């Protein structure tokens, strides 16, 4: 549980860093375009204008990366901490339902992966968006809005990434290492969830 919580925190830190980098890159491009525009103004135009555009002198606060959100970090760590026992019992159930043997080959692994992706993946995303929305102070309308906008695209993206990861996990990882393996590989995935969740929060606020 502690390991999963820490990895969740690393994932959200990665997501917030990516967001800050994107904003800084966008601001640099906008500032460069503004400088080019200023240089291209003819001298006669400068004589007619009493002031220059404000953005040449005053930085736009929208172009500045937001401060690091420690509350958001705490929410992601709490979610990873809470979900790890559920994941552990789920993986144990799969191992008992589809036991691996030397002659079975990939068949049990494929069955575990299919059940995981068709049953637990939709459940896990439901838990994630519900937990995050409630932890952020949102109500039923915010939850409904989030599910309408991003649940299905996220689930489709999940099915493009995780089947291969889970095949490797169920094939080679002992039960006690399956959650740390998934959580380690899932840092970028959780960062993606963090980005989509925060982007949707901005849409709801607007």
TrEMBL record:
Subcellular localization, as worded in the UniProt entry: Membrane
Signal sequence range: none
Keywords of the record: Membrane, Transmembrane, Transmembrane helix
GO CC terms: membrane; mitochondrion
Xref: InterPro entries: Mpv17_PMP22
Membrane topology note: Multi-pass membrane protein
Coiled coil (residue ranges): none
Homology family: Belongs to the peroxisomal membrane protein PXMP2/4 family.
Stated name of the protein: Uncharacterized protein
Organism encoding this protein: Gomphillus americanus
